[in-house]
Each structure stands twice: as structure tokens, then as C-alpha cells.
Design a protein that fits this description.
Elements (H helix, E strand, L loop, with lengths): L12 H13 L21 H11 L7 H10 L3 H21 L7 H8 L8 H7 L7 H18 L18 H12 L3 H15 L5 H4 L6 H10 L21 H18 L3
GO biological process, one term: sprouting angiogenesis
GO cellular component, one term: cytosol
GO molecular function: ATP hydrolysis activity; ubiquitin-protein transferase activity
């Protein structure tokens, strides 16, 4: 590992699975699967379906801007973000099956219902203590975005699985227009929505057939957001027409850089 770089976690999944079996299942009575929902591996089920199941049982709401800002400051490393995201993904899997009380604190659910207190660092529990079950999907969106930002900072490609067709460079003119747009927009929300869109839609081997790189980014994002029963941020209407899906990765990177510059200069 080079000096100054952070250690990136590598997980021994079979060992973790064995630990979970011993921790939660050994000695418990056998229950047949007939008549009860089955928990599927989170990587085998599309997140859109997972989120739909949760919303059907548990109303969801956005994270307040203050909590977004506070949480972003709480996670001081890539490892912190990954650890918090792992907790949230476990909660998502169970909530999709069972639902829950929207106003139950997330930490209470994780500690009392899932009995995961001993597996979670105190700093992660403290950060998550600001959230409730009604925030769990928005929290996943925030943490996956912060993970992508950390990967970029660590010189890794957060979108390595995306086709190069979505990674085309911006012209100088495009960069100028896009920067002007970003300076007048809520960059955090823009980052969250684009990151989620890329992770959920553009990693598929058939993405190029479904989402044409020649489509306008604005005219793709707006119906995507509205399709989640949310109102698209009004400023997205001002996204330059010449910015296409082929520019989406570079657009996201420019938004990250704009956000970082604004924090340094105290603009946003």
C-alpha cells in the first residue's frame, strides 16, 4: 500500500456467512419456508424491487438537508462509509420482508430487532442515530454516493462496470455551461440522483439498449425521478440540453469537483 492511501476492505464472505449462522441460527428450531417470505441475497435482487417492497410496507421520506450535511461529516473514511452501508443494506433486506414503524430510530431497529449491536462500531451507531426507518432508502442513496466519492478520491473507478459510451469527455463549452448550472443548483441532490441512476440502471449488460447514450441527461433524469413518486428538483430543468447520457460519468465527476471547491471557498 502506498503511503497516505487508505486500506480498502476485503471481505471473506464465506467466513462472514458461517459467523452469522453460528450467531443467529445454531440451536434455533427448524422452520419450513412454506407460507413465509424468503430473504434473498441482496446482490441477487434488483434494488428497484427491494425499494418497492419496502415502500409498500413502510412509507419513506427524504433526508433533511441538515442531516445530509451532518452525516457527510461523520464518515471520515472509506471504511466508515462501507461499514455504515453494510448495516443499512442488512436492514433493507429485512424491512422489505417485514416492514416496520416509520418513526422507529434506525439504531433501535438494528440493535433491538436485528441484534447487531456487537457487530457495529460505536462511531457508526452514533452517525446512524440521526435517522429513522422512514429514511432507510434515502440513507442508502446517500451512503452509496459517498462511497463513490471516496473511491474517486482514492483513485479508483466507482463506475468501472459502466460502458465507455457513458464516459465520454465534456467539451470546454459543455464544462463551462455545466459549471454555471451547478453553481446555481443543489449539488448534493444532483449527486445523489445521478449516482443512484448510474448504479441501478447503467451497470446492466443491456444498459445501452435501454438508455441510449445519445439521450439528453435532463430528459432522462426527470422521468426517472418522477417515476419514484418524487418531484424532480426544479433546477434540473435548467440542465444544459447539450449534456447527454454519454457525458453522465464526467458530469458526476465535475459535480463532485464543484462541490469540493465550494466547500473550500465557502460558496455552497
Amino acid at each position: 500500500m502506498e503511503s497516505g492511501q487508505e486500506t480498502l476492505p476485503e471481505y471473506d464472505l464465506p467466513k462472514i456467512e458461517q459467523h452469522l449462522i453460528h450467531r443467529f441460527l445454531m440451536g434455533k428450531p427448524f422452520i419450513t419456508l412454506a407460507g413465509i417470505p424468503t430473504l434473498v441475497n441482496r446482490y441477487d435482487k434488483k434494488y428497484e424491487n427491494l425499494f418497492r417492497d419496502i415502500k409498500g410496507k413502510l412509507p419513506q421520506t427524504s433526508l433533511p438537508n441538515l442531516i445530509i450535511t451532518t452525516l457527510s461529516g461523520e464518515f471520515q473514511s472509506y471504511n466508515d462509509v462501507c461499514d455504515a452501508l453494510s448495516v443499512v443494506e442488512v436492514a433493507l433486506g429485512f424491512l422489505a420482508m417485514t416492514g416496520g414503524e416509520p418513526d422507529m430510530p434506525l439504531v433501535r431497529y438494528v440493535e433491538d430487532i436485528l441484534q447487531m449491536r456487537d457487530q457495529i462500531a460505536a462511531c457508526i451507531l452514533k452517525a446512524l442515530s440521526r435517522c429513522y426507518l422512514k429514511h432507510v432508502i434515502a440513507l442508502w442513496q446517500l451512503l452509496t454516493t459517498r462511497k463513490s466519492q471516496w473511491m474517486l478520491r482514492l483513485k479508483r473507478d466507482p463506475f468501472i462496470e459502466l460502458s465507455s459510451e457513458y464516459k465520454q469527455p465534456l467539451s470546454d463549452n459543455d464544462q463551462s455551461h455545466l459549471t454555471a448550472f451547478l453553481m446555481q443548483s443543489n449539488v448534493d441532490i444532483f449527486l445523489l440522483e445521478i449516482n443512484e441512476f448510474m448504479l441501478l440502471n447503467l451497470k446492466s449488460v443491456r444498459a445501452l439498449d435501454t438508455f441510449k447514450p445519445t439521450w439528453g441527461l435532463k430528459h432522462t433524469l426527470i422521468p426517472y425521478i418522477e417515476g419514484k413518486d418524487q418531484e424532480a428538483p426544479p433546477e434540473i430543468e435548467d440542465l444544459p440540453e447539450e449534456i447527454l447520457l454519454s457525458h453522465i460519468v464526467e458530469t458526476w465527476k465535475l459535480a463532485v469537483a464543484t462541490k469540493q471547491d465550494s466547500l473550500v471557498n465557502g460558496v455552497l
